[in-house]
Amino acid sequence: MAVQSLYRKWRSQTFAELVGQEHVVQTLRNAIAEDRVGHAYLFTGPRGVGKTTMARLLAKAVNCLHPDPAARPCGTCEMCTTIAEGRAVDVIEMDAASHTSVEDAREIIERVQFRPSVARMKVYIIDETHMLSTAAFNALLKTLEEPPDHALFILATTEVHKVPATILSRCQRFTFVRHSVTSMAAHVRRIAAAEGIALADGAPEAIARAATGSMRDALGILEQLASFVEGPITLHHVQRLLGMTAAAEVDALIAALLAADLTAALRAVNAVANQGADLRQFARDLVERLRAVMLLKATGDRTLLDLGDDEAAQLAQWAQQAEMTALVQWVKLFSNLDYQLRTTPYGHLPLEVAVVEALLAPAPAAQPAAPRPQPARPQPAAPVVAPRSQPVVPAEPPRPSVASQRAPADSPPVAPSPPSEPAMPAPAPVADPPPPPPAAWVAAQQARPPADPAVARAADAELSLLEQLEATWEEFKRDVRPRSPTVQALLNSARPYDVEGNTIVLLVSSSFHKERLEEPKNRAIIEEVLRRRLGKVYAVRCTIEGKSVEPTDLRGKIREARKDELVRAALNIFDAQIVDIEPLEPE
């Protein structure tokens, strides 16, 4: 006869025996004591943290025969014993992974209407709920929302993101957390003592770390070790059975890194490779230990880490020796090795290279930002910017500099006269100024009429409106849909392009969209929604993409100039506005 597994034999039978999940236990206890048990619960969390165990405890609690509600489940009455042994016909436990169809959901719906045979309540425990099909979820919705008074649904899942929101809204949700290494190690010690299994120091913590927060996995490892080892179970046995990296090698490598001893560090890496251990797991263990040292160095707070008492002293000593910049560099360096170690054909070479780089390669220094390259000339017309607080003055043409008129090369140098005052430091040499522009260009600039500030203000207002339309275009289309889904579909191929006074120009992709959008009834719908959103009447016209031309009027040029990021930055910094667009000085 097969021996019962430890995780089944030692499954908690009362709330007091349950390890961890105190927030869930306290809430359910209060609900049972106050007779406020809900009609549907959803238990979520990683594997092996007690979701199914909690579901069975709740099923026992609502059917327990103990007279004191606060003492339920007692674990000793007839109903508690029957449910624990799996003989209760009114507690239906099903695996959604093998009952995914809508027919299974309909069977539940039909059976839930019948009152329980023996128990006080009929309880449905649906494990791995996320495996149900969409049709099965939809079939359960109404029953899950308003089940009969004698029915209770308990759903459990490890992937809550796959459960529809309609199901989540009908359940009281409880999130189960992973068990800590300390609590798991203590529970493993208690069970090992009850089973007569001797555990050496460090073995329970190693089992708990290997289980990664799952109590079921921890008890499975303990059972496997009990069959593998004769006598006390030591840390070496745990590492050998599970193929774990020797903790001594991780510690040796960290000590070598802190001491800047490259030989000892490479010796530790080769010792791990010679043991045949998983190098990826070794790198993960190394990163986890370095992370713990980094957090201790940064905060000095042990509560941020899940540490046993035997590790705290060693990590605290390393934290005092280490430099924070080096720890950060090492964590980044070794955390990038997982993919390389999985794909490389060179064994543990990436790990050796990382060790050498950690000790010998200099830390990357912050490089000064390179100067921004100057754009090549010729350039497009440059905007003339004037502060808003000052009157706008037409731009003056550039004047030739006196310093640009050089003396002939063959003229003899003139001896300087002795200074009558103390000499000032000579200014730094500057580049030669550009040559003066042609006289025709200067005359043309002087003949230009002064720019009109009203034009600039109008261009600013139009650009602001255009930006507002672009930012809220999706909302605008949603407002159009109730009036005409057809117009909304046509607007999906259009976007705001320009504002010309009281006319908004839309850029469309084809002549078909242009003709349909400019039909009177469709244009009236668009203009009405614009009026409601903007509080002003605007006309609408369309232009076809690819046929638009650059603006020729000053207002259009100002709008185009304001779209440039550098121009916008200048306007914001100096609180200025564009008043005119001038062509650049010719070469």
What does this structure look like?
The protein has 587 residues and is an alpha/beta fold. It has 26 helices and ten strands. It has a five-stranded parallel beta sheet, covered by helices on one side. It has a three-stranded mixed beta sheet with strand order 7-8-9. It has a two-stranded antiparallel ribbon with strand order 6-10. Helix 5 links the parallel strand 2 and strand 3. Helix 14 runs antiparallel to helix 16 and helix 14 runs antiparallel to helix 17. The longest helix is centred in the middle third of the chain and has 21 residues. It starts with 5 loop residues before the first helix and ends in a 5-residue tail after the last strand. About 9% of the residues have low confidence.
Keywords, separated by commas or semicolons:
alpha/beta, three-stranded mixed sheet, five-stranded parallel sheet, 48% helix, flat, 587 residues, 26 helices
Present the secondary structure layout.
Elements: H1 6-9, H2 22-33, E1 40-44, H3 51-63, H4 78-84, E2 91-95, H5 102-112, E3 122-127, H6 134-145, E4 151-157, H7 165-168, E5 172-175, H8 181-195, H9 203-211, H10 215-228, H11 235-242, H12 247-258, H13 262-274, H14 279-299, H15 309-321, H16 324-335, H17 337-343, H18 349-360, E6 382-387, H19 439-447, H20 453-471, H21 473-480, H22 485-491, E7 494-500, E8 503-508, H23 511-517, H24 520-534, E9 539-544, H25 554-562, H26 565-574, E10 576-582
Parallel strand pairs: 1-4, 1-5, 2-3, 3-4, 8-9
Antiparallel strand pairs: 6-10, 7-8
Helix pairs in contact: 3-4, 5-6, 8-9, 9-10, 9-11, 12-13, 12-14, 13-18, 14-15, 14-16, 14-17, 16-18, 20-25
